[in-house]
Design a protein that fits this description.
Length: about 425
Amino acid sequence: MKSPGCTPRHGRYLIIFSLCLGLTCLSGYFHVKNKNYRISKSHEELLILPTPCHAKTNVMFLKTHKTASSTVLNIMFRFAERYNLTVALPAAQLFHLGYPKTFVAHFVEGFETIGQNYNIMCNHLRFNPLEVKRVMAANTFYFSILRNPIPLLESSYIYYKNNVPAFRSSKNVNEFLASPTKYYHPADYRENIYARNIMWFDFGYDNNAEDDKNYTQAVLEEIEQNFHLILIADYFDESMILLKHALCWDLDDVIYFKLNSRSQDTVQTLTPESEEQIKAWCSLDWKLYLHFNQSFWRRIEETIGLEVLEKEVDHLRSRQKELMETCLSEQEAVRKDDIRNKALLPFQSGAANILGYNLKQDLDNRTLRTCQKMVIPELQYTSYLYAVQHPHKKRKDVGLPLLWTNLQERNVQLPVSN
């Protein structure tokens, strides 16, 4: 008598079934692989089955200098208020997190009691990953922003003209660049950080280091490991769309009015020779910029696609224009002497004339509050948030009238689009 089990006929069926199943799985594997490959070619594949995402609320922004970072800080502060998030603010009367000293956790107000429970970090600091991780949660999203070193150095020269020895002793930016070492002295290292490779310095590295291929490559790889995203200020609107996607935020979360910009009459024209000299004098920043400019566009092509990017940038600009028409009396930034409400006067530095905004007079209270948060300068916003988060501490003194005395009005939304 045969024992129970598979007969030869059953065995043949089982083999055929297994082969079919294997081929089906194999074809599915190649289909998935092929589909993933095509995503980098065309974003339409991605739009068929969008991956659900949740807004990231633990975010660290390394605020670099003269890179439109004050505008990004305003975006971060507004997001923090909208969701009642805790911001890692500078301790006591400071407006930066210990800069230019390398960051340590106790530079943050309340760190000893709050610990690793901050959601947002975005004030100026010199990056120190181990100390930042003591403050920020393990799932924090890290990003920063870079700018072409050529316009950046010209901007730094004007803004820090009175503070940087290398700039102060030269007549203009072209004279400085004709012979930088004539004005830039190692003894003035700390005071001269804005005169050479300032972005490299902000990321925590030696801005006077020798431009060695192995060294620069190691630094670039380390930055890639420490940061999830590097934006490019020269393509600011495109950067905001990429940031929106990376953080799974709404469009209104990245809407902005340009802050801390200066009047055009303070811009000095660089000679072609000066532009080339910047590439050599700030060679570390130049390599940093070139590297992450490439990765920026590669990231866009692989995740959004240029066609969708263009549409979303148009949408962002339309929404921005709509809000400017709602909020602003002149529809543009104005010179410091033309700012009516001195509580909205931005910090002035060097030979620059830092622009600000005038708001319309007939806004209802809710809209006024929203518009004020779009245009409030960095120091005033930092002081306000500090008073909200640390009501028993002395408010940071900006030396200007207070915009808000009532600290309870929070979570203001942007006006609904028509």
